[in-house]
């Protein structure tokens, strides 16, 4: 996709179609693995991610490089056309340009990431805006309980609001001091390190605060709705 073809940030009424040629075969394979329970070790740590002292979740292998995983479509989102909407159950909906986003309080965080396909990568240094600060700026309403994300490739995922506003959750624009590359979700991606990495949308454009949960792309294809790596919540 050429830079001037940045898709419009979708409006809430629109269902976002998956853009371009997604890798149907890959999606089918992953769905089949979910049905069969592949990759499960059966050795979940009973306390789960918020309390365990184990750094590496069960069944995971450490990698030094950083694999790229997505549906095979990497939208080319021009920096001046990127928009982030925060809407739904909020008193002050946001529609931010990248400049406005960069003007929010900035944070630098180091954390580990864990992909459901069994790789983990330690000590990723991100720069960006804390999810909590963003949610506060939008003045979330009391009845909001869940968050749904939409990305420029049409990908969706979901988390409880309580997971999203944890200290270590970030909307990252940079990694190791450099702007996040397109393949890893630039200009801006979400990073939710305590959950499997499919819960961390790349090329994010919309964050909706909801009363009821709304399962996303992989969640409706057999992946676990919560996705705690220490509980081995791969499939659900
Ligand atoms: N928009 C979007 N975000 C996405 C995905 C995707 O296909 N589209 N894939 C998810 C999955 S399954 C993983 S493991 C991580 C991979 O991120 P990476 O390519 O930066 O390693 O992104 C997640 N976020
Ligand atoms: Mo993944």
UniProtKB/TrEMBL annotation:
Where does the source fall among the domains of life?
Bacteria
What Gene3D superfamilies does its record include?
A: Oxidoreductase, molybdopterin-binding domain
Q: What is a single Pfam family found in this protein's UniProt entry?
A: Oxidored_molyb
Q: Which residues form the Oxidoreductase molybdopterin-binding domain?
A: 75-218
Q: What is this protein called?
A: Sulfite oxidase-like oxidoreductase
Q: Where does this protein come from, organism-wise?
A: Roseicella frigidaeris
């Amino acid at each position: 996709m050429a830079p001037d073809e940045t898709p419009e940030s979708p409006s809430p009424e629109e269902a976002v179609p998956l853009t371009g040629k997604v890798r149907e075969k890959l999606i089918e394979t992953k769905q089949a693995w979910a049905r069969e329970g592949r990759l499960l070790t059966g050795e979940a740590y009973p306390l789960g991610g918020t309390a365990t002292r184990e750094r590496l979740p069960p069944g995971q292998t450490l990698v030094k490089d950083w694999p790229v995983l997505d549906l095979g479509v990497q939208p080319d989102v021009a920096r001046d056309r990127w928009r982030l909407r925060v809407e739904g159950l909020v008193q002050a909906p946001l529609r931010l340009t990248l400049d406005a986003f960069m003007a929010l309080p900035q944070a630098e965080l180091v954390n580990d990431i864990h992909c459901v396909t069994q790789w983990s990568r330690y000590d990723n240094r991100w720069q960006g805006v804390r999810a909590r600060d963003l949610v506060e700026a939008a003045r979330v309403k009391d009845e909001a309980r869940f968050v749904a994300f939409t990305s420029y490739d049409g990908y969706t995922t979901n988390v409880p609001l309580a997971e999203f506003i944890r200290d270590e959750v970030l909307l990252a624009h940079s990694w190791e001091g450099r702007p996040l590359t397109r393949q890893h979700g630039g200009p801006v991606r979400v990073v939710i390190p305590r959950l499997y990495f499919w819960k961390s949308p790349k090329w994010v454009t919309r964050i909706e605060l909801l009363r009821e949960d709304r399962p996303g792309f992989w969640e409706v294809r057999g992946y676990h709705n919560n996705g705690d790596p220490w509980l081995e919540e791969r499939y659900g």
